[in-house]
Amino acid sequence: MTSVTSTNGATAPALTSAQRLSGDLDMFLTLMTTQLKNQDPLDPIKSSEYTQQLATYSQVEQSIQQTSKLEAILSQLSSQSLNAAASYVGMNVTTSQSVATLGPGGARWSYEVPASAVSTKLSVIDAAGRVVLETNGATARGTHEFAWSGGNSAGGDAPDGPYTLKVVAVTSSGAEQTLAGTVSGEVTSAVMANGKLELMIGATKVGLTDVTSVQRSAG
Question: Across the chain, which distance is largest between two alpha carbons, in Å?
């Protein structure tokens, strides 16, 4: 099922500004009419100040109208972008993001071994920099997946939250090579919030611009 969410409150400020300007202009015209009716015929009020004030109101009104039109265009573009992002739902993606959020469905990463390794160690690190789990990884050259359900090295369960995967491969010469783990998995929904488009992979939010590869899910 495709899940698409949009949160956008950008039009409210323009509407408020337009209403406030209309109220101020009505009050100004009322005061001007009253002054004109009660002015001294022998010492009439100069019209230049009123003309300048009306010109200022006109410029502000045009600016608000232009802003409203621009916001309407941006809203339309956002809707089109969100519809495009919906095509990612149900697809398997790999991203350049290294931090995954552990949730009810666990957390998933990908890592690439550039050359065959003697051994590979995977370390899951929490937001405080503590290693909560260490385990062996794949040693064959290529891209590999690592799914973590939340179990830690002590036999318990790690709390939900953000975690980073660190990968250290040991080559046949004994040299260590640190590799980056990147978030991967099936996109479950697309979210537009405050003008920013994000994809949800389980409990992890990733930016659409962070996606590096897309594959159709099996089945």
Answer: 104
Of all residues in the chain, what percent carry a pLDDT higher than 70?
63
Sheet of 4-7: strand order equals 4-7, 189-193, 196-201, 204-207
List helix spans (H) across the chain. 11-37, 47-86
Question: From CA 16, how far away is CA 107, in angstroms rounded?
Answer: 44
Instruction: Specify the higher pLDDT residue, 1 or 47.
Output: 47
Burial of 185 by CB count in 10 Å (0-12 exposed, 13-18 middle, 19+ buried)? buried
Asked if 114 and 187 count as a contact pair (C-beta separation under 8 A), the reply is no
| Dist CA 14 CA 21 (whole Å) | 10
The answer to whether residues 127 and 162 touch, using CB atoms and an 8 Å cutoff, is yes
Average pLDDT over residues 41-46: 67
- Angstrom distance (rounded) from CA 217 to CA 219: 6
- Which amino acid appears at position 204 of this protein? T
What three-state secondary structure class fits 11? helix
pLDDT score for 1: 43
